[in-house]
Write a structure and sequence with these properties.
It is built from four helices and eleven strands; from the N terminus they run ββαββαβββββαββα. It is globular.
Length: 228
């Protein structure tokens, strides 16, 4: 577990692809319990450690996750996420390049609980919710494209579903139309950057995620740095 930032009220960690944020029916140890154990040992906390889950990442996705260490921080962060005051940027690797190098995508998403999948429509349909994101191409290789994605709404599998709908499924994402899986079971989607005002101190916090060890991720990261 990589701790990116911590103070008395919040802790931000890097989630590896394959880890779950919160316990589920698999019974696998969730990241939230790992963080609790870390806090308990580091600060010699007796009894149960308070840790609030503020948001989640899909299991095959890597990147930054924010947890609350106090009830005050949890309440305020929940409110900030609900109001869209927490700004999250993702990186996604796709084999197919989008027609436009930069665009705003608006679709209506319907979630299928049994399939654990969402479906995108170009117009409103029964049971749908509006999904909005913006993207831009920030690097290319011979076979792949790296997109920077900014979420403007928070829908189930939103980035995965909307990119697939425009013909650009995320590398390794079989559920949404990728040709083959990634060797480690991940999909090439990274919660790369997060920025928000600290719920207690009111200071602006801004953090970027390390890149996965996968050679393609490293190559894409090098390509971005060379353009700066």
């Amino acid at each position: 577990m990589k701790v990116i930032y911590e103070d008395n009220h919040i802790i931000i960690v890097y989630k590896e692809a394959g880890e779950i944020v919160q316990g589920d029916k698999t019974g696998d140890e969730p990241l939230s319990e790992m963080v609790k154990e870390y806090v308990k040992e580091k600060y010699h906390k007796p009894g149960n450690v308070f840790l609030g889950v503020v948001h989640r990442l899909d299991r095959p996705v890597a990147g930054l996750v924010v947890f609350a260490r106090t009830s005050k921080a949890l309440s305020r962060l929940n409110d900030m996420f609900r109001k869209g005051e927490v700004h999250k940027t993702y990186w996604a690797i796709t084999r197919e390049a989008p027609r436009q190098p930069e665009a705003l995508l608006e679709h209506w998403l319907v979630r299928n609980e049994k399939q654990n999948k969402s479906y995108a429509y170009d117009h409103e349909v029964a049971g749908s919710k509006l999904a909005r994101l913006s993207y831009k191409v920030i690097a290319r290789s011979q076979n792949y494209t790296l997109l920077e994605v900014r979420l403007l709404t928070g829908r189930h599998h939103q980035i995965r579903c909307q990119l697939a709908h425009i013909g650009c499924p995320i590398r390794g994402d079989l559920k949404y139309g990728a040709r083959r899986s990634n060797p480690d079971g991940s999909i090439s989607l990274l919660a790369h950057h997060i920025e928000f005002v600290h719920p207690v101190s009111r200071q602006t916090l801004s953090f970027s995620s390390p890149l996965p060890a996968d050679p393609l991720w490293q190559a894409m990261g090098d390509a971005v740095r060379q353009q700066i």
